[in-house]
Structures are given as C-alpha cells and as structure tokens.
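Escalation from tier 1.

The customer reports that the assembly of four entities below gives different structure tokens on two consecutive runs. Tier 1 could not reproduce it. I'm attaching the input and our single run for tier 2 to review.
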Amino acid sequence: MKNKIFAIDDERDIQEIIKVNLEKEGYEVNTFSSADLAEKHMKKGNIPDLIILDIMMQGTDGYEFCKRLKSVKEYASIPVMFLSAKTEEFDKVLGFELGGDDYMTKPFGVRELKARVKAHLRRTETLHAKETQVLRYKGVELYPEQYALSIDGSSVDLTKTEFFILRIFLENPGKIFSRDNIIDSVRGQDAYVVDRTIDVHIMNLRKKLGPYKNIIRTFSGVGYGFKE
Amino acid sequence: MKNKIFAIDDERDIQEIIKVNLEKEGYEVNTFSSADLAEKHMKKGNIPDLIILDIMMQGTDGYEFCKRLKSVKEYASIPVMFLSAKTEEFDKVLGFELGGDDYMTKPFGVRELKARVKAHLRRTETLHAKETQVLRYKGVELYPEQYALSIDGSSVDLTKTEFFILRIFLENPGKIFSRDNIIDSVRGQDAYVVDRTIDVHIMNLRKKLGPYKNIIRTFSGVGYGFKE
DNA sequence: GCAATTGTGAAGATTTTGTTAAAATTTCCA
DNA sequence: TGGAAATTTTAACAAAATCTTCACAATTGC
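Tier 1 run:
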C-alpha cells in the first residue's frame, strides 16, 4: 500500500517540487499551504505516514504544529521532517526539541529529500503490524506463511506437496487443473510422475480435509479443482 | 537506564568532542577508531542503542559497515547516523540507501548533533522497550539482553547462535523459517553454511529446551518453526 | 456393459532430517 | 601472543518422513 505524505509549505513552488518528486517514488502526496489546513484534513481521518513541514507560515507555524502533533498520542508516532530556510543551529535544535525527527535546510537537494523520506518510512514501517494472509473457505483455513491448515479451528499438518496442491486450488476457486498442471506448479516444469501419484496426493489431502473433503472435486478425464 | 552510543571515527579529536558532549547529556559513549573494532565489540554482546559513524576509515569503511549491520536482524534496528566530511548529495543519498538513518556533515554543530541523537533515541525507545522484553512460552523464558534462557525457573546457558535462533522463533510464533532464513537472520545475508549445520544447532537447542524440546517443530522440506 | 478413468492400500524408492564424532574456527585467558 | 576451551561447521551415516509406483478395486461416461 502507498505511503501517504503531507507536504506543508506556503510556497507553491516548493509544494510542487516535493509533490512531483515524491509521487515519482510511488508515494501519495497531499500538499497544504498552511498547517491549519493540514490539521483540518487530519481531523477528518486523513492520517499521513510522514509530514514534511515548513516553519515560517501564516497561522500556526511549523514549530507550534509539530509540538501540538507530538502531544496527541494518535499522531505522535508520525515522523516530522522540518524543511526550512532557517539555517541557524539554534533553529534546528529547537525543531528537534519540539519533537521533530529531521531537519533539512532550503535550498534542498531533491535526491537527499527522497533518501531521507525513505529512511524515515523504513524505520516506522516495522511498527505497522503485518497481518498474516489467510486463504479461507468455510471452516478450511490455509496460512501460506505457516504452511498450516486449520479445519474448523483445529490445526492439521500438511506435507509440502499437499500444501502446494491445496493452495493452488484455494487460490483459483472454480479453476480445473490437469494432473500435469498440478505437478508442474508443485515440482517445477520438468518433473514427470505417473498420474496415479497425483491421485494419491489428492486422496491424502481429502483425508486431512475431513468433513470438507468434497471441496476437491474430480473432473473425470480432465483433472481436479475446487468448486463451491 | 543509560542509552549506549558508539562513536566510530578515526580522528581522535572528533571522538573526544562526541564523547564529552554526549556523556554530558547522560549517555554512555564508547569510541572506536575503526568499524572493525566496533564490530568486534558488538560480537561480544555489547550492543549500542545508536551508532555515529564516519565514512572514510581504515579497514571497513562506514558505508560497508552500515550495510552489513542492516543485513543482520539483530542489529538492523539500531539507528546509524553518518557523520562525514563528504558533503556531496550523492554521498548522503548513498548513506541512506545503505540503510543509514541520518547524515550530518563535518564540521558539525554539537548542539545539533545532540538534538539529532536525542530525536533518534526518542523514536526507537518504544521499539526498544519491546525488544528487551522477556519472551515467554509456558516454562520457557528468554532474556534478550543477557543471552539467557530459563526452563521452568532454572537457568540454562545458550550459545549466541542458539540464542538468536530461539529468539526468532519466539518472536514469530507460527511462522516457519527455512534454513536460509535462519542463517541469514543470525549471521547476515551472505553467510553460507551447509544445511546440516542448522540441524545441529536445532538439535542442541532442543536438548537444552528439555521438556519443551517439541516447541521447535520440523516442517519437512520447508524448515523449522515454533508452534503452540 | 464395457472401456476408460479414478480411488486405494501397501510396498519400495527417494528425499529429508536426526545424530554422532571429528575438524575448523573463534573466543578466552594467562 | 600462545594455547586451551568453547563454539561453530562439516562429513558420514542412521532414521524418519515423504513421495512414487504398482496392482487392483471402484467408479464414471458413453
């Protein structure tokens, strides 16, 4: 999923440079000419993954906005990169003191900006919990990451081959696979086995599927498939 | 608890400036004149919370060191701040590409350095808190900060390799790791060992797990994993 | 009904893993 | 720094798990 970035700066040119370049990197970029506008947008439930923030602006200035942001638990973990014409060390230190995560000075290099943005997002993405994928049909659940099958909640062990066969079925409901198709996707293109071998795997799979054994259907003369 | 910082730079003066100023802030600072020395220290179990890294050095240079660090799961989350006389945008971008988290150019302002260090530690501390937590499953308790394992209350010594393997299992319950996955997270990306080597580590681990040896399950043709 | 196709149990072949001991490497300590 | 101890890695073989085949029974489709 695309990472969302807010660029808050009262100069249209800067907004454009940031937007164009970061979108080229595959980010979704929203630009705002003031912190107040950005804040309004966030209150509507539009939460960015990173904020690029000018300091001197009409209305709420960057420092103030950052400080406010970091005091709200929901927003505190969003990285804030200051981007300002203020080059004094004092200004930078203040930015960090108020909770900022980075500080770049104008004029800035686009490539450095992109690199820094990427670095911050890299660091935060581990925080975002990864959800495990599941292939499900009724009480049958297959967890690709875990090579595991659960039938009505209780787990069943599969062999590697059984796992791959069941997976191509669940990934392609309705599709019928010939025995060649099946063995190809499980063992690679140039593996040859006797047809009866696949039948045996199917049989073993059906045994393990218990009450759901009929989700694997036989199409005489054609092959096997999963059909609801 | 004090945050530990490694400052790696071949100039004694720089080392001193960093050490003195950051210690004033309450950090524990270790200085090294080469990345190789720092790495040796880390292998002994001395893990910093942040690394300040020069680029041009004798032996392994900063870029190379950073890249290697980020490829080892154990070290990947440690923030790396480059501190270099190389001011070209290209150099900065490269630093970030290799997994760096920040880049300051020499000469640098001490106050800005302190502010940036603080910002990085602020960001990682929540993550870090989780990392030093005890990993527990039934009577098995793993203490990440001391390579120690306790089984039903009595402590068992683990070797470093055993510790890391057990840890990735306990951190990812249900997930299955191939032998390559395992050795990669323990030794870094481009380490090659024979498959049977991992089996031996697993066997030794199981012996030490005593009554809980079966929490490490074998998935034939796939790898190993921890499953409740 | 009959030929073709599929289901099934068990035996055999193959692959994968477990285990031991010894070699190579690293770490530790005097 | 040298050498002992600890650790990691490897090789060789045993054991286990998995896959494949075969023979024949059961089923399907015309």
